[in-house]
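Shipment paperwork, digital attachment
Item: protein structure file
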Amino acid sequence: MRFVFSATLNKTNLTFSSTHGRKASRGNSGIMHRYRYWIPPITLDLNVWEQFEQKFNNTVKFKLETNLLIADFSKLNFDISNLSATNLTKLIPKESIDYIYTDPPYGQHIAYLDLSTMWNAWLNFEVSEQTKQLEAIEGGDLNKSKQDYTELLSASIAQMFDVLKFDRWLSIVFAHKDPAYWDAIVKSAQSAGFEFEYVNSAVQPSSTPSLHKRQNPLKVLSGELVLNFRKVRNPRTIAITKVGTDVVQLIKQVAELQIVKNSGASTEEIYNALIPKLLENGLLSQVKNQLDDITPLLREEFYFF
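Attachment content:
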């Protein structure tokens, strides 16, 4: 019933906006697509009971399906825990996990806990001060700094290293235009003892651009990069094979290669090619110190349309 109520609440509040040209109920809460508490110029009051009934029927359908597919399997193989990633060993034995796939918050992009306030109030979920302190974001209600974010991220990666078996993999999904965040991830992983495998990095594209992406096509990335790290007993660091390389020139070369190869390239395609290249050459720290955003550089050198 909490599933049903939570889903109903998404469409029966003042932040709901309908999708133009479609059925009135075909829309979403502004919280979900603007990532802030936003009330549209024209509000729409949907029938609460109709929405509740629809969500109830949908929930029954998916429960029937999942019960048939994973009921017995999930009893022995599936577990959901609510705890901080900075303290995984409180619940998970060391060196007991075969694979970790994680999608951490992207810095200050979305203040998840702040945006869940309405749901927490209606569902009677308590959010303690400690929970807020442990949320790995920049900004938010506590106005956390980039340093706060990177420290929490680093502590979480160290815990992932502890619970992962040797010769197993950690995959981190991430998307950000500030090289400092990428640098923080790689350094935290290497500090914990992981070995970074840049050749195994993979692009995870998004087929549905967010509202931010549509409004700021050159400033917002629509896809993510999956960075893969392996837990080994004697990790090797990334060899800095091109000390003194002109970072700006490298960025231009990578961008040009993507443009020529694909007869044009989007911002995210250039980033997805650039980040592994910087990691491979040990130049991410240098870029972090020199450039917060490469978009102005690309604007100067290439034609945008």
